[in-house]
Amino acid sequence: MIPYGRQSINQDDIDAVVEVLQSDFLTQGPKVPEFEQAVIDYVGASYGIAVNSATSALHLACLALGVDKGDWVWTSPITFVASANCALYCGAQVDFIDIDPDTYNLSPTALAAKLEQAKAESRLPKVVIAVHLSGQSCDMSAIYALAQEYGFYVIEDASHAIGGSFQGRKIGCCQYSDITVFSFHPVKVMTTAEGGVAVTNSESLATRMALLRGHGITRDQAQITQAPDGPWYYEQIDLGFNYRMTDLQAALGLSQLQRLDSFVSQRVELARRYNELLAGLPLVLPQQIADAVDSAWHLYIVRLRLESLQLSHREVFEQLRARGIGVNLHYIPVYHQPYYKDDFKVDHFPVAEAYYASALSLPLFYDMTAEQQQEVIAVLRSILHDARNE
Question: Rounded to 5 degrees, what are φ and ψ at 317?
């Protein structure tokens, strides 16, 4: 089976982890702050908080921005459930904005319309979480302009997008957001096995996230509330979590970061070849925002032109899997999930519904060979050729 995604681990990565295993620090040592600095140097942000997952980073971002009971957080329905769950963890309510029909990211047009209605109903969001699906940035300048007009915070869920750019600057520079979150799960562009980072240009937000990452405990003399009992003294000043990244993970991340540009350039080339070799098939190929975006290409998503085919979406998916092509579907709309579905009507999100009815993620990963990509294309071409309406 050719997987839709997988990590790329070389000897340098292994050596970096072994070095930490042979050191005095396995969990909280020097590699974590070193990794945080390397990430913010790469993306052009001021502060970075490394954590055990992007889900944890999203939760910390919401907490740092003061999300609480009675607040609304809006996000895209075409995302992993963590993009919405992070608001529920804080006691807030979640709503969704329909997606753009071309990029599949959160639609600024739909957002503007929903904001106008929400203002009239006095239920504007406290935070909008813009998800950069497949590695392509949302139209952040448009979203930021709406944030300035309506007064909400912006989190970029860039779990797919490290190494990508928007308007010539790296995703994560936080030019148009308060906090950006990255994921380093094994199928992502680079990996720390599990892990994530929240980056920001706000010292106060960074301080808050760092505190909550480690149980709400501090040794910082500026934060403790009474004279120390001795040099061992610390205080828990808030109810935090154990969301810390280990030195083992950070060491792997530091090594992977050295190859990040290479990872992205290879993904760009694989996407270019897909675009070239899939042209003419009954597919909608991925589109990018013209002259604004350089995608990190975490995913290569196509949509079936089902009106031209005798097979259903599911049948094409199953035939590809049966012939060794590990396609996937990113994502089931969040409001379809049983935990959410009672609160939402599918006809409120027609573009997301149309996307879900026809989308497929084709295999795309750094170590994918030309032969593997050609096999994906040949099998897909064969299935679609046989399924064409005459």
Answer: -55, -50
pLDDT of residue 341: 81
CB atoms near residue 259 (< 10 Å): 16
Distance CA 83, CA 245 (A): 20
**Which DSSP string corresponds to 313-333?**
HHHHHHHHHHTTB--B-S---
Spatial distance between the Cα atoms of 329 and 81, rounded to a whole number of angstroms: 14
| Residue 389 near residue 308 (C-beta atoms within 8 A) | yes
Q: Are 325 and 380 in contact (CB under 8 A)?
A: yes
Q: How many residues does the chain have?
A: 390
Q: What is the pLDDT of residues 99-145, one digit of tens each?
A: 999 999 999 999 999 999 999 999 999 999 999 999 999 999 999 99
- Mapped onto helix, strand or coil, the DSSP state of residue 267 is helix
Residue 92 CA to residue 94 CA, distance in Å, equals 7
Per-residue pLDDT at 390? 62
Instruction: Please tell me what DSSP assigns to residue 343.
Output: G
3-state SS class at 283: strand
For the record, the structure tokens of 109 come out as 């047009």
Q: Name the percent of the chain in helix, strand, coil, to the closest 5.
A: 40, 15, 45
Whether the CB-CB separation of 133 and 79 falls below 8 Å is answered with yes
Instruction: Dig out the tokens for 304 from the structure.
Output: 């079936």
Using alpha carbons, select from 78, 74, 81 the residue that is nearest to residue 352. Answer: 78
Q: Which residues pair with 49 in a beta bridge?
A: 198
What is the Rg, in whole angstroms, of the alpha carbon atoms belonging to the chain? 22
| CA proximity to 76, closest of 95, 55, 103 | 95
Beta strand 153-157 with 93-96: parallel, antiparallel or unpaired? unpaired
pTM of the full structure: 0.97
Burial of 214 (0-12, 13-18, 19+ CB in 10 A): middle
Longest dimension (CA), the chain: 83
How far is residue 60's CA from residue 155's CA, in Å, rounded to a whole number? 11
